[in-house]
TrEMBL record:
UniProt-recorded name of the protein: Acetylhydrolase
Upper classification of the organism: Bacteria, Pseudomonadati, Pseudomonadota, Alphaproteobacteria, Hyphomicrobiales
Database matches in PANTHER family: PLATELET-ACTIVATING FACTOR ACETYLHYDROLASE
Swiss-Prot/TrEMBL keywords: Hydrolase, Lipid degradation, Lipid metabolism
Pfam families from the UniProt entry: PAF-AH_p_II
InterPro entries: AB_hydrolase_fold
Annotated region (Disordered), positions in chain: 1-22
Superkingdom in the source lineage: Bacteria
């Protein structure tokens, strides 16, 4: 529906999308990506995250004129209890073939608990790749996962964050807590999250990196490996912000001629350089259980994983920014029946703690 660039239109919507196969590209950053997550953007379809507070939903049809690239976004914003400089912001990157309408259960849950969530759409690797001649789909997927698009995705997050800091977009810039800005994403979006928080590769003798120091933490859901990289430690060692990694024991990516086991998700976690990192592994599930799709990974398990993931992120932020390990410990106890591995809280120095109220 129509939006204005000032963020004054409150709207809701439902958009359906196809499955999300993520073939590895043959080039550069794009070669890091593979996936088969079914991707259907069905807000509230799984009943996973009921609204516990008022939520404002705002769509933006931004265009980065410098790159001649559209950067649509959907903002989930707390509609009550907002004070100047008090609102944490998560900037979320979708998987291949997705859109700003995806992962609505996360946006609604987080914003209902006082944490804004800006879901950015990546124009050259969004749902448009599913449209057109099926015979040419493989070519479209290859283009969507090449180095240029992987870099452009990181620039999309940077641009979207710039816009949220722009007074012409509204009063959001006065309300966001700049100490608590977080990058997050699923699948291809998880790799994008790692790129903006410090991941780098060497191409033709030059280091390619697109870190944005405004992102103080990362939420990494089902990250594919950096395919084509023989030294994952060199790629991920520079990621030094607190990170939460989420996966499942059946988080397996299968495509004809391409395969990525759950061990790849564990390897990404292991090689991230930050000492402030946590890993949560659900028992069962699937790669697409973290999308808005309602039944993947099991009819009963699906909504549980969704709600648990949304809650884990908030508990992680309590630890990363407030030094409070109690919420994540309580989370582990609550969700232990569906966990294969519970996250271990990391130490936070008193000097690193922001003076904040609890998220939940």
């Amino acid at each position: 529906m129509a939006d204005d660039t000032r963020g004054n239109v409150v709207c809701t919507g439902t958009v359906d999308g196809p499955s999300e196969p993520l073939p590895p590209s043959r080039r550069a950053f794009g070669a890091m990506l593979v996936g088969s997550a079914a991707f259907a953007m069905l807000p509230n379809s799984a009943g996973a995250a009921p609204n516990v507070g008022a939520v404002r939903v705002v769509d933006f049809d931004w265009v980065d004129e410098g790159r001649r690239r559209p950067v649509p976004a959907r903002l989930y914003w707390p509609a009550a209890g907002v004070r100047r400089g008090s609102v944490p912001l998560i900037v979320f990157s979708h998987g291949l073939g997705g859109s700003r309408f995806g992962y609505s259960y996360l946006g609604r849950h987080w914003s209902a608990h006082g944490v804004a969530s800006l879901h950015v759409q990546h124009a050259a690797s969004d749902r448009e790749i599913w449209r057109g001649n099926l015979i040419e789909l493989v070519d479209r997927l290859d283009v969507a996962t090449q180095e240029e698009e992987a870099v452009a995705r990181a620039e999309d997050l940077r641009f979207a964050l710039d816009r949220m800091s722009d007074p012409t977009v509204g009063a959001f810039h006065t309300l966001i807590d700049r100490r608590r800005i977080v990058a997050a994403g699923h699948s291809y979006g998880a790799n994008t999250t790692l790129v903006v928080t410090g991941a780098k590769v060497v191409r033709e003798g030059r280091t390619v990196e697109h870190r944005d120091d405004r992102f103080k933490a990362g939420i990494v859901i089902s990250a594919p490996p950096f395919y084509g990289e023989t030294d994952l430690g060199a790629v991920l060692g520079a990621v030094n912000v607190p990170t939460l990694h989420v996966t499942a024991t059946e988080d397996v990516i299968r495509l004809p001629g391409r395969y990525s086991p759950v061990q790849d998700r564990l390897d990404v976690y292991g090689y991230v350089g930050s000492q402030q990192k946590m890993l949560a592994v659900f028992q069962g599930g699937s790669h697409s259980v973290f999308t808005d799709r309602a039944y993947t990974g099991g009819v009963d398990l699906n909504p549980q994983v969704k709600r648990a993931t949304a809650e884990a992120a908030l508990a992680f932020l309590d630890l990363a920014f407030g030094g409070d390990a109690r919420p994540i410990s309580a989370w582990s106890a609550k969700w232990s029946p569906i966990l294969a591995l519970a996250p271990t809280p990391f130490p936070v120095r008193p000097a690193d703690r922001a003076r904040i109220r609890r998220f939940t």
